[in-house]
Design a protein that fits this description.
single chain, 3 helices, mainly alpha, 76 residues
């Protein structure tokens, strides 16, 4: 699985910027996760496989889950 984030998310403002970027992107392209169910399913799959810091929630962890929810990370 590739990690598509370039910079760790440390603040609420950085997370909001990422969320707005993802919303803009969703308007421009079709994501593989095209329903709320598949989006949440992709987030859960990523968390099970890659979420080693899940017991220590952070803005960065949530941001990575959102990006994984897109469904284009090639979950094996």
């Amino acid at each position: 699985m590739r990690d598509i984030m370039h910079k760790p998310i440390a603040t609420k403002e950085e997370l909001l910027a990422l969320m707005f970027k993802l919303m803009d992107e969703a308007d421009a392209v079709v994501w593989p996760s095209d329903t709320p169910y598949s989006f949440i399913q992709q987030m859960a799959a990523w968390l099970e496989k890659e979420g080693s810091n899940a017991n220590q929630p952070s803005w960065d962890l949530f941001a990575r889950m959102l990006e994984a929810g897109r469904g284009d990370e090639g979950l094996d």
